[in-house]
Every structure is written in C-alpha cells, then in structure tokens.
Amino acid sequence: MVELRNVTKRFGAYEALKEASFEIRAGEFMTFLGPSGCGKTTCLRLISGFDTPTSGQIFLDGKDLTFEPPYRRDVNQVFQNYALFPHLTIYENIAFGLRMKKVPAAQIRERVDRVVKMTSLEAFIDRKPAQLSGGQRQRVALARAIVCEPKVLLLDEPLSALDAKLRTQMRVELKQLQKKLGITFVFVTHDQEEALTMSDRVAVLNAGRVEQIGTVNEIYYKPATRFVASFIGESNIVEAEILRAEGEFLHCRLEGGLELDVRTPKPPAHSQILLSLRPEKIRLTRENPGGRNSFPGTIEMEIFKGAVDDLTISVQGGLQLGAVLTNDGQAESDLHEGERVFARIQPEDIHIVAA
Ligand SMILES: Nc1ncnc2c1ncn2[C@@H]1O[C@H](COP(=O)(O)OP(=O)(O)OP(=O)(O)O)[C@@H](O)[C@H]1O
Ligand SMILES: [Mg+2]
Questions:
Q1: Domain that holds residue 312
Q2: Fewer Cβ atoms within 10 Å of its own Cβ: the N or the C terminal residue of the chain?
Q3: Ligand 1, atom 25: nearest CA belongs to which residue?
Q4: Is beta strand 320-326 parallel, antiparallel or unpaired with respect to 259-263?
C-alpha cells in the first residue's frame, strides 16, 4: 500500500531521514517508534505529500506519487499539532472532509455522529476548538481524519495529550476501528508500550535511520541493534565474551565475571558479544534453585509500580541487572531492598544483540 524506496530528506545540511526503504501492507497497523527528533513526523509528511524527499521515491497503492500534492493521495493525516479550523464548530471540523467530497447530507450526519460517539465528543460538538482542552482537541483531530475513511491513515502521536485511562481506551477503539474498516494505519509514537499493544509491525527509528522493522514480537524479543534493545522495554544490555560453545549452548562471561549459558541456534562470528536479558525473564527466589544459570545477588533498589515492582539486582563483579517482581501475593513476591536473593534466567531467554 505504501512503499519508500531509498528515501532521504535533508533540511539544509541536516539529514532528517537517511535512505529509508520499506513497505507497508494494505490493512496493516504500522508504527514508527523512536525518540524525539528521530524523523517520525518527517516520514509521515513525505507519505502524505506535505513534504517531498530530497532523493528516493514514494509509492502509494503501486503508483509513484513522490511529487504529487496531498490532495491527489488517498491519505489522511492526524497532525501532531491538530491543525483544526479555528472558526468552525467541532461538528463542522469533523464534517469538513465529507462536505468537500460532496457526500449526501444524511450520510454526513450519520458518519459524523458515529465518530463523535466513538471519541466521546458528544458534549462539545457546538463549541469552537479554542473552547476545548488539549486532549479534547486531539480527539477532534482524530475524529476528523477517521470519518473520511481513507485508504491510508497517518496518525502523528494522536493519543499523547490524553490521560492514562482515556489513552488505554482509545488504543483499543482505534485498533478495533482499524480492523473493522480495513484501513492501513501508519501510527507515530515515542511510547514503546503504545507501539507494542497496537501494532502489527513496528519500525524503530533512530537519528533518521530505520534501525529495525519487524513484528512486535521480533522487535521485543529479537532486537537487531543495541539501540532497539535499549529503547524497547527496559532490557539489560550486557557485554560478554564467549568462552566456549557446546552444541546450541554458548558459555559466556559477562562484564563483572558472571558466567551464564546462552542458547542460540547459530553462534555469532565474534567472541565479543552483546547480550540482552529481559527483566521479566529473571526469576528471583530466596533459596538457591540450583541448575543452569542460577546466581546470587542483592536487591539494591526496589520501586513500587502497583502490579509489579522494578528491582535492581547487584550480582558478581558489581554488575547491575533490572528485574521485575509481580505483586501476586505469592511468597516469591515478598522480596525487598537489601535482601540476598538467587536469580535465574533460562539460556533461551538471553538474546544476542547483533550489533
Ligand atoms: N522544516 C525543517 N527545517 C529544519 N529542520 C527540520 C525541519 N523539520 C524537521 N527538522 C529536523 O529534523 C529532525 C526530525 O524531525 P521530526 O519532526 O521528523 O522528528 P520527530 O521524530 O517527529 O520528533 P518528535 O517526537 O519530537 O515529534 C529534527 O532534528 C528536526 O529538528
Ligand atoms: Mg513529530
């Protein structure tokens, strides 16, 4: 549905997007994820046609539309700054696109009413944008884009101004809507949890470069670079040296001296590697569980987060590892700061980061 071929965008000497090449399939929920300034909005503006690439091509539905203006593309964008019409009521803001397309009045009413309900804006339809809060305005921007049902919907951080509860609710509704309408969604966020819960695939951007594109699972469990591993979730990234290989197991020495087995079907070419240990894969117990990959440590820090506690465990050689404790009332969840514990991680739960 959308294809970027070697797309570069320069602002003066600054490269905001570097040689980006990827495809977005019809009906897919694709998310651009990355820190502020990495080029997410730039990428969306190139797809919508509000900007043109310095080099490279952009295809929509098989056609080269690199230099076509926005109105020649079946694409709608929800802007990061909303871009509402200040002199129109909320209702008219939402109905605007349909009026432009000369949709019959009865249909306009029906379609606008439906999205107004979905975005919980019933009470505000007669107001002007200036009379709304930031989060309410953001929902109007969303409603205005959804109501047109374009082939491709580009959403630039459309949930960032909402409170935690509304955001979670809108995530679910957006995802359902996308499935129902079969619209291709290109969603931008710097919130990794949002990306993981909503997307079919995620493109992780860093300083204008696409570091990895993959399913939510691939990005989370098989990060291709150190940046992806550290940006997605709160993985422990640890340098290690392979001491020896035994079948599928690599016996590794981590920085600080701790030795662990890593299970991998294909051993890397170099002996110096980078390992990713997901905090939630580290099991903690008071008694020594014995067996492969169990090691002692001390709980250095404990941060209460409601359903879980985030812990920092200090292990051999002063290496610090993040771990997560589920507050489920079981004996194992009753571990606290300052305690000596045993940690264990399965060899298949340690991942070798490629770079
Ligand atoms: N018109 C412009 N002129 C010069 N530099 C620009 C222009 N637009 C964007 N940039 C620069 O390009 C880089 C990427 O900007 P972009 O807006 O794509 O970031 P972003 O990933 O959307 O960030 P955020 O999460 O903060 O919205 C930034 O460093 C920005 O300063
Ligand atoms: Mg942006």
A1: 234-353
A2: C
A3: 36
A4: unpaired
Q: What is the mean pLDDT of residues 79-96?
A: 93
Question: Residue 119 C-alpha to ligand 1 middle, in angstroms?
Answer: 29
Q: What residue's CA is closest to ligand 1, atom 11?
A: 16
Asked if the model's pLDDT at residue 331 lies above 80, the reply is: no
% helix / strand / coil in the chain, to the nearest 5?
A: 30, 35, 35
Structure tokens at 77: 């964008």
CB 292 within 8 Å of CB 250: no
Please give the distance, rounded to the nearest whole angstrom, from the Cα atom of residue 42 to the centre of ligand 2: 7
SS3 344: strand
- Does pLDDT of 191 surpass 60? yes
Residue type, 353: V
Give the other-Cβ count within 10 Å of 86's Cβ. 8
Q: Which atom of ligand 1 is nearest to the CA of 39?
A: 18
Cβ burial of 78 (10 Å; 0-12, 13-18, 19+) is buried
User: What pTM, to 2 d.p., does this model score?
Assistant: 0.83
Mean of the per-residue pLDDT values of the chain? 92
Q: What is the pLDDT of residues 15-40, one digit of tens each?
A: 999 999 999 999 999 999 999 999 99
CATH assignment of the domain containing 81:
3.40.50.300
Q: Does residue 354 surpass a pLDDT of 70?
A: no
Q: Is 216 in the pocket of ligand 1 (CB under 6 A)?
A: no
How many structural domains comprise the chain? 2
